Amino acid sequence: MAMDTLYDYHIWQPEEGEDDLNVTISNSHLLPCNCFLFHLHFRHILQSNHSQQSHYLLNSSLSSYLIPCDVFFATASSILIAVFSGTGVAQDFLDTAVPDVLSVAADIACNPLNAGRTILPLAVSVLVVSPYNERQEIGQVLRESSPQAFKTLPASEMAIEDLKNVEIGVGGELLIGECRICLDELVNGMEITRLPCAHLYHRDCIVKWLETSHLCPLCRYAMPLS
Fold first, then answer.
1. DSSP type of residue 78
2. Could you give the 3-state DSSP secondary structure of residue 187?
3. What is the 3-state secondary structure (H, E, C) of 103-135?
4. Is 36 exposed, middle or buried, given 0-12, 13-18 or 19+ CB atoms closer than 10 A?
5. The RING-type domain covers which part of the protein (predicted)?
6. 3-state secondary structure of 96
7. Is residue 56 included in any domain, yes or no?
8. Residue-number span of the structural domain to which 202 is assigned
């Protein structure tokens, strides 16, 4: 690889009703102690240096954990390493991020505005960007990523060739969503391809994806193997 993988992360206390982090704990007043409701939003992206499609989404997940505050502060390093273990992040990232998460958690616990709250929300978003220069390096990045997340095989050439393009009706909405690989918009007039599971992508994006993984990026629908 010509460049190293880059990590960007943000740690904060979510507001009530914040998009994607609105997890309700029933009977929270019955909990025996104060707890952190820890949210981890993880994304891993391939960043092209010269491709027309600048980036490709490899993985995106949102996980939530209810952790007693005293347990969190007593064993924060072990807990956070366990939480991050399924993402494949590097040890250098953990060495930097774990103390920062612990520091923000301490600020949240000591904030007078949180006095009397049983549930203390704590969120961490992590963006991993793996640069690559050549198309064939996509496979290398996949192999070097978390083995739990990226044990994949390419789809068959015939299955890729048989993919059907979708013609969006002229009377429909101009914007029909986004391609979940490159994250750019899908609009009328583009060459849009539909998998058998009905999910839509840019033609070039899904072809390149299926050349390294036979699974739909969204629902893990399995295309025929080579």
1. H
2. strand
3. HHHHHHHHCHHHCCCCEEEEEEEEEEEEEECCC
4. buried
5. 179-220
6. helix
7. yes
8. 152-226
CB atoms inside a 10 Å sphere around CB 122: 22
Residues 29 and 77 in one domain: yes
Mean pLDDT of the residues in the chain: 77
Residues 168 and 198 reside in one and the same domain = yes
Residue 192: predicted pLDDT = 84
Residue (of 103, 58, 102) closest to 83 by Cα position: 102
Structure token digits, residue 99: 């103390």
Sign of CA dihedral 145, 10, 42, 77: positive
pLDDT digits (tens, 9 = 90+) for 174-188: 455 677 787 777 776
Calculate the alpha carbon distances from 118 to 11, 56, 80, 124, 181 in Å: 20, 40, 21, 20, 39
Q: Is this prediction's pTM over 0.70?
A: no
Please report the pLDDT score of residue 140 as a whole number: 53
Same domain flag for 174 and 115: no
